[in-house]
Design goal:
The protein has 373 residues and is of the alpha/beta class. It is built from 17 helices and twelve strands. The chain has a five-stranded mixed sheet, with helices on both faces. Keywords: Cell inner membrane, Cell membrane, Membrane, Signal, Transport.
Length: 373
């Protein structure tokens, strides 16, 4: 297909990422030079933590990033840190995250104890890590704990640790568990420190996870560049739909410059149709473009959870915030230039606790939760 577009205003882009398997689209784009046909080159910039991704996006040291969906909204709303106008250009993947507990706790659950019984049996608040205060992992962890009958802010001590430190902290006994992305669950399990007890696709099936994020002024100043970057990442996500390509990129991700983890630990949970476990839905990167559309309703869901847990008390127009962050028009222009149709805005999902979210009435949805801040 011949793609007729305006030339990008910027041709060399620095993209931030954290060492996670779902950084695969960025790795594919850089290693296969997929930006060439769209007029851009990509430089990968590995970051030690999500806080570093945030800070370098805001300072302009990186142009865009593989980022937690909830990180973008946390910065937009100024929760617990600097506030800036942010943009979600597209979704990079669905699913692919998990919750791992220490071996004794996981064994107790496997032998029939409920999550609540196992954690209460410790006789102290369990220490469970997530990766960023407003990030996806914090929200998945809180939702899972609440659905299990535990208050995530009172019954559990939640701490923030960068993903690559999770397995080490579990081995050292500093944690009772963690919620993060792969391959760190596979690493913890291989080291005998813990076992995966839940997958985030069990909490919200086919949930949005990482996004392609930038400051909003970057997208406004360089719209052709932003569209070129979206087209490049759509190419990368489509390439990842091939099972053989998942195996190939798993080996590439193993390099010290990317994840620095053996490919044998990356591949099973990235390439297997069920992520290596029948309980899990696979990591999805493209699915004909259905993965990548930046639905406003997804952003609205994060705002409901911030309000649920007392992170956001200001009266804001949540719908207006989400509509300003999620760059639907820009995404549609980029996708349609490649012949990729945009799906509908509404997408109903049934969560682990039986509640249904479709973005239709956020206030009623929020009011329905018995366990809140």
């Amino acid at each position: 297909m011949n793609i007729i577009t305006s030339a990008p205003e910027r041709t060399h882009l620095r993209l931030g990422f954290v060492a996670l398997s779902d950084a695969a689209p960025l790795a594919v784009a850089a290693l296969r030079d997929l930006g060439a046909r769209h007029g851009v080159t990509i430089e990968l910039c590995r970051q030690p933590s999500w806080a570093a991704v945030r800070d370098k996006l805001l300072s302009g040291e990186i142009d865009a990033a593989h980022a937690l969906y909830g990180l973008v909204y946390g910065v937009q709303l100024g929760i617990g840190g600097p506030r800036a106008d942010m943009a979600v250009l597209m979704v990079l993947n669905r699913n692919g995250q998990a919750i791992t507990l220490s071996r004794p706790l996981a064994d107790a659950i496997r032998e029939g104890a409920s999550v609540k019984e196992a954690l209460r049996a410790l006789g102290r608040p369990p220490v469970i890590a997530q990766t960023f205060p407003t990030g996806t992992h914090a929200m998945w962890l809180y939702y899972w704990l609440a659905a299990s009958g535990l208050h995530p802010l009172r019954d559990v001590r939640s701490v923030v640790i960068p993903p690559p430190r999770m397995a080490d902290a579990l081995v050292e006994g500093a944690l009772d568990g963690f919620c993060a992305g792969e391959p760190w669950h596979a690493v913890a399990q291989a080291r005998g420190a813990g076992s995966t007890v839940a997958y985030t696709s069990e909490i919200w099936p086919d949930h949005p996870e990482k996004v392609l994020a930038c400051r909003r002024d970057f997208a406004a100043l360089y719209p052709n560049t932003a569209r070129a970057l979206v087209r490049t990442m759509l190419d990368a996500c489509a390439w990842l739909d091939e099972p053989a390509h998942r195996v190939e990129i798993a080996e590439a991700l193993a390099s010290p410059e990317l994840l620095g983890v053996p490919g044998t630990l990356i591949e099973p949970r990235l390439a297997a149709p069920d992520g290596g476990d029948a309980r899990a839905l696979p990591v999805r990167f493209f699915d004909g473009g259905a993965v990548n559309y930046p639905r406003v309703s997804d952003g609205l869901w994060f705002i409901t959870q911030y309000r649920r847990w007392g992170l956001l008390s200001d009266a804001i127009d949540a719908a207006a915030v989400a509509a300003s962050v999620n760059q639907i028009a820009l995404y549609r222009e980029a996708a349609q230039s490649m012949g990729i149709a945009a799906p509908g805005e509404r997408r109903a999902a049934t969560f682990i606790d039986g509640r249904v979210w479709d973005g239709g009435d956020p206030a009623a949805y929020l009011a329905g939760f018995e366990m809140r801040e």
